[in-house]
Design brief:
The chain is mainly alpha-helical. Helices cover 82% and strands 0% of the residues. It has six helices and no strands.
Length: 142
């Protein structure tokens, strides 16, 4: 066997003697603990048991509240995303008759476009007047 075989994939490079030493240490520690527990009086054992039960009860309370909180967070995220989607969808202005911006650029680059810029106030007045005329005609039809 080479050194690579001794160092297995699990990273355990301890020798058998070290493992036996640890096992003996664990057995001795367990025996000492069991002996010390056997020497405790009833009042101390009762107090330790009550403390253990209170700790377990507190832990189960925390787990229940954590479960509620962790189930509500994803639901709140989905609800918030839905609200944002509706606001964005409803708030988007629609202008179906608007010409594409490329057409505006072509008009401005033409020689007549420069003359139109000189009379921009007239064209603004004309578009406002046409809008007012269209609304008057719509009111007459109704």
């Amino acid at each position: 066997m080479n050194e690579r075989d001794n160092n297995r994939d699990d990273g355990d490079s301890r020798t058998e003697a070290e493992e036996q030493s640890d096992t003996a240490f664990e057995a001795k520690a367990k025996a000492l603990f069991a002996e010390s527990v056997a020497q405790l009086d009833a009042a101390t054992l009762s107090r330790l048991n009550r403390g253990r039960q209170e700790a377990i009860a507190e832990l189960s309370k925390r787990r229940r509240s954590a479960v509620r909180w962790t189930t509500l967070v994803p639901a709140a995220g989905v609800a918030a995303a839905a609200v944002v989607a509706v606001v964005v969808w409803q708030g988007a202005p629609t202008t179906p008759d608007a010409p594409p911006p490329v057409a505006d650029l072509e008009i401005l680059l033409d020689e007549d476009g420069l003359e139109m810029l000189e009379d921009i106030e007239f064209y603004t007045w004309l578009s406002i007047d046409e809008t007012a005329l269209d609304s008057d005609q719509d009111a007459d039809v109704s």
